[in-house]
Amino acid sequence: MNRLIARVASAALLFGLAAQAAQAADALNGKSLYLNGPVSGGATCASCHGPTPANNVNGILAAANQPSVISNAFAANLGGMGSLFSGKFSAAELADLAAFIGNPNVTAAPAASLAPTTLTFSGANIGQASAPLSATLTNSGNAALNIGTISIGGAAAGDFALGGGSCANGASIAAGANCTVQATFTPTAAGARAATLTITHNATGGSSTVSLNGTGNATPQATIGLSASSVDFGKLLTGTPSAVSSITVNNSGQAALNFSAISVSGASAAIITRAGTCAVGTPVAAGGSCTVTVQAAPTSAGAIAASLTLASNASNGGGTVTVSLTGTAAAPAPALSATPSAVAFGLQTIGAAAATQTVTLANTGNVALSIGSVGVTGSTAVKLSGSTCGTTLAVGASCAATVSFTPTTEGAVTAALAVASNAPALQVGITGTGTTQATAKPALSETGPIAFADTQVGSSAADHTTTLGNSGNAALKIATLTLGGTNPGDFVVGGTCAANVSVSSGATCTITTAFKPTASGARSADLLLVTDSGAQFHLTLNGNGVAVVVTTPSLGISPQSFDFGSVVIGGTAPTRRFTLTNSGAAAVTLSGATFSGPFAAVADSTGCAAFPVTLQPGASCDLVVSYTPTNAGASSGSVTIQSGSTTWNIALSGQGAASTPNAAPSNHGGGGCSASQDVTDPTLAALLVLSLVVIGWRRRSRNGGAK
């Protein structure tokens, strides 16, 4: 039993010593804990020992690299430390605190390593590029690694080139992250070639290098290059050849380029005609070039898909290069559309002035439209009163036909606007009703289409106003005012005209339209207005959405809220550090911070500079905030940080506590954060004494047994 006790005591001593030595302490994390307090919140070491342990306020340096000194102070509740911190720090965090106390000037810094340190390229023929090799730049530090420039220098710098990789000039590499840089080798002379790749940065040393080595082979080779890797013939008509497309083939090598085959293959090969100066048996001298021309003559509708292949003795491309040939073909087909597709005049007074409406005719086919005639059939009360349409209409073009209604008898009439052309016959139905009663006579101030200026997606173009007038001798009521068509959600309708709104004789109302694109490209809609008499009016709305990259400030805040806990009124104001990090892709300028409640910014040389503060992408700084309650009870407030029109908020809270008069001081040495004012660790001393007692007892036991 005695032997067991001795072994346990010895093991306890060794464990206590080993635990202190094995802890891989993080002084930077210790700094955060010292200045901000436990992760769970509460008082801070700095509130009792000052902003830096270097001042040794209340003997804090006794705990330098001695986590057991801190834990023993907690256990003994020295200076009330147990009440404040017992159970709030893990063993690792205590070790971090002790490490910071031992190194109070610790700062975050990047650490750069570039591996491998040498890139050796395989032998390459003069003028021929090798496969790329890469090196990895790693930031093993605890602050952002900022890259300055990436360059190649040295005797044969011109034989090596940067290309690819994720490292870039001016880039920022986060702590623990890495990026790659790639280089290629294209020898300009025979023999060994060498250069140095250098990356400048803000880590120790200021730069990292990689040696570049390669061997140039003197054997001359041909090298092929193409002016285009694909040809798109575009939209073609069956029976009509495309324009001739030309591809230039050049030889940038050191030997003649000889073609072994030049061919066209694929589903549409039969409609492709090839010509040009490139030919089998006709070498292309080093530094020279030739051309290949292709033309498509589709005979049927559908997609065009083929490939032009050139096989040669070139050292690159595996000896074969390919050019894809694409396009679409459609049969010639004129097409005609009308907007609106029907015209309704509604009630019109007999003998009153004619009511008019306009129909827009558009060529939506792929060939020119030949117009034979434009006229009105049906009731003689409806006439074609004007037309801008000639005998032909180009693809995508439009013209306008105006029809009028002058009833001579009571009752409904029907007619049609008939258009004869080389497209299928088109008829636009026309309706109206004659009456002897007084009627309204609605008319719009324009016939459209309304074209809005190109507008950024998410923004709005200038409003456009159209007037609805009533020149009749009776009031009208708007039955319907709606948006339809392809993209009605990209347009907004307002104004004094609306459904169920009445317009008196001789009066007007306004229709305001706005363009707010939700996507890029052409956008359109159809505005339909219907009156209670049955009259219908259409306005086409057109606009073009423009997509642009909008840079929005992005700021990360840690923590986003904090409770300072209970703080004595009139006592030392506790502080908390809030880390502000630019998590966006562009620099952000913080113009200011607005506080509410008993909270305020604290000037700190290790925190953010005075506002305005500009943070580069990935950069951060600490906003130090204090809590000074003036009234007992719960406190709440916030910090609002501004950048232009963008704001971020930090929620703050605390509890004000009235001070206790004539209270005896309870801090007898540690100041609430360290155990004593000297370097003595009472636990270590006790373990040492116990160990000596056990060793002495065991020796006496042996001696007694020997007798």
UniProtKB/TrEMBL annotation:
Entries under Pfam families matching the protein: HYDIN_VesB_CFA65-like_Ig
UniProt entry tagged with the keyword Metal-binding: yes
Record keywords, A-Z: Cell projection, Cilium, Cytoplasm, Heme, Iron, Metal-binding, Signal
Domain Cytochrome c: 25-105
PROSITE patterns for this protein: CYTC
Annotated TM spans: none
Segments of this protein annotated with the region Disordered: 656-675
Compartments (UniProt record): Cell projection, Cilium; Cytoplasm
Main location: other
InterPro entries listed in its UniProt record: CFAP65, Cyt_c-like_dom, Cyt_c-like_dom_sf, HYDIN_VesB_CFA65-like_Ig, Ig-like_fold
Keyword Cytoplasm assigned: yes
Biased composition (Polar residues): 656-665
Annotated signal sequence range: 1-24
Matches recorded under PANTHER family: CILIA- AND FLAGELLA-ASSOCIATED PROTEIN 65 (PTHR46127)
Protein name from the UniProt record: Choice-of-anchor D domain-containing protein
